[in-house]
Amino acid sequence: MTTKRLSILGKVGALTAARRASTPPPPPAYNAFNDDDVVADGRMPSDFPPVTAEEADNVNLAAAFEKLNLTTIPSNPTVDTCLAHLKLLFAIQSMKEDVGYTDGLWGLWDARAGPLDPSIIPREKPSAEMTPQQKMQDKRLAFLSRIREKRWALFVARAVERYEVWWKSIPGQQLCEGHMEAETSQGYMNFATDMSTVLNWTEEMLPPLDVLMVWHTHMLNPRAFLEDAMLAGLKSFWTTGMPWNRVNQAIDDSDFSYDVSDECKTQWVVRTGLSWENADDSLFKSLKCFRCSTPMEIPWTTCAQPEDYVDATPSDLIGTGYGDGDLQYRCPGCDIIVRRELLSAAKFQKDVQALLGPGNRPMPGTILSPKSGLPEAIPSTVPLNRMFPRTFPNRLLKSGCNGMRTKMTSLIALGGNPDVSMRDVRLEIERTLDMNAMVREIDGLSAGIINKPYRLSPDARIAVRKMMSRYWDNFSAFALELSGAVMRQGVFVEKMFKIDWLHSPSATDTMTRLLTKYDRFFTIMQETYPHQMAVPTLDIDLAWHTHQLSPAMYYAHSVKKTGRFIDHDDKIEEDVLSVQFEWTSKEYQDRFGEVYSECTCWYCESIRSSHISSIGKVLGLSKQEKGMRYVV
Predict the structure, then answer these.
(1) In Å, how far are 97, 100, 105 from 116, measured between CA atoms?
(2) Contact between 618 and 624 (Cβ < 8 Å)
């Protein structure tokens, strides 16, 4: 194998830089034009002066980033933190391209797609009929793209595992149910607001870039991150958030490679037992069988092939390894088939055991109010504490009703169901909730207290669903499946990379404007949430994301403005987003007298920086913008 794996993170971006050097600079990614290449005011693409390579080169990033006012102390978003955030996104995107183009990584060779003929000219128009040679070339190119996407998917899956190891290495006091009963508990009620415990981030504390990427995504799911941090007791870690000055210093200003000292790398290896480089970690995931405790070595992928292997019919590259899409591994001790569904059930069983154990750790999903996202203390008086809706799942699993406690702690016992999954857990819970006497007993009520039939409250049922949501398609230690979240976040990262505000001569002015828009956006949420859902534009989202990367500051701002901890949901249906974006656009223009969605390419941003605002105001909403999650 000729692949230089050590270059993946140590010299991130080198391959990308080389490719860019050999090709003309791409146009800005933002498409201000409709399907007919006409902007809303009738101008054509040729009416806009292109950004030249000389203009891009004249932006002295090194000098600009040296002047950024950054610290490790958490803050609300500023021009400087937004620029540092952009720099991190560039490093992540460069790492993604570098990984995708690392031929042979994990036995995934480009040659597997078949030979490409450079003499074949692509068809000039999409409507033109393709020759057999063009069809074959397109087929091979599509498969080559899937091979590169597969490398990245495996890289991300391994990065999430590495992040979990790092997370568990951070010292903290685990949350227990008793903490949730005290009005002044530092581990619960005051966890999100006490700013007295800030980490003193040093360079040696930084994780590798792939782990930093996963942490970045985790924080961009604010309620999930708060719940996970509370459960693990990582108070100072939550309070401090992203150490922008350390991250900025570690990322090169020219090729966006991530470079730290040897001491930092050594500290990582000592703390986690993992290699600094993602690709240098083992090709196998070590686990003990959940049923018989037999050690298992599960390959990360079963899609690897020799370099000279060519698929006669391109495969789907799903695979049955630990990082593949269809995990299947037979335990050599008891023959149980390890699948993703089994791993989720095993996670649930482990969490139930933690609830019943001496630590009395509450179940995930029962920590924050589903409505407000805030911690709410369990009432101290009887019977209110026995009937508190949010913690009903904990009472249910601790009860002996319908054998619930025994069943949930022995889901994967020898001689039991070999295909156990969270569907089995749901069925057992539903059976118990259908028994009126059982529900009454779980809530500590005798038949003499309430003579009429006792029904579980809607809020308690919501709490059960909230708990279950932590396990559907998720067997990680966290409240959400982070591999998928990183992939979804990659859409935003790529858009930021393509629009390239970082190299714009007007970058500082752009950041200033988007911070103003973000403040206005939050005002709209403050006055309309939860009756309406405001949808951000791409520039607002950069400020919003930057704010969330200082979790305690974002929490304080959100609660002060809205009385709730506003979450950031990236899984809303496109048709809902389209309707709500149109509502947000109208609301913004009615309130502030400015167009909500406007072109933010370099040219238009430069025009605004020269205080010529007429062009920006006449730009309307293009056909392509409607229904998009992120709209410029």
Answers:
(1) 20, 18, 20
(2) no
Dihedral of the CA atoms 50, 54, 60, 62 (nearest 10)? 100
25: which DSSP letter?
A: P
b/e burial code for range 155-167 (CB count within 10 A of at least 16 → b):
bbbbbbbbbbbbb
Answer whether the bond into residue 530 is a cis peptide, omega within 30°.
Answer: yes
Nearest Cα to 287, choosing from 325, 326, 336?
A: 336
Q: What is the pLDDT of residues 354-409, one digit of tens each?
A: 999 999 999 999 999 999 999 999 988 777 778 899 999 999 999 988 889 999 99
Q: Cα(366)–Cα(353) distance, rounded to whole angstroms?
A: 16
Q: How far apart are CA 173 and CA 234, in angstroms?
A: 7
d(CA 449, CA 460): 20
337-338/284-288 β-pairing: unpaired
Distance between CA atoms of residues 303 and 541, nearest Å: 37
What is the rounded distance in angstroms from the CA atom of residue 89 to the CA atom of residue 92?
5
- 602 within 8 A of 28, measured Cβ to Cβ: yes
Helices (H), 77-126: 79-100
* Residue labelled with tokens 């405790």: 293
Instruction: Find where tokens 């990245």 sit.
Output: 152
Q: Residue 81: which of 89, 94, 69, 92 has the closest Cα?
A: 69
Exposure string over 462-484, b if 16+ CB within 10 A, otherwise e: bbbebbbebbeebbbbbbbbbbb
Q: What is the Cα–Cα distance from 475 to 478, expressed in whole angstroms?
A: 8
Which stretches of the chain score pLDDT less than 70? 1-64, 446-452, 603, 606-632
The pLDDT of residue 308 is: 87
Main-chain dihedrals φ then ψ at residue 514, nearest 5 degrees: -70, -30
- Residues 334-351: tens digit of each pLDDT: 999 999 999 999 999 999
Q: Where are the domains of the chain?
A: 365-469
pLDDT at 444: 81
Q: What is the Cα–Cα distance from 19 to 500, expressed in whole angstroms?
A: 17
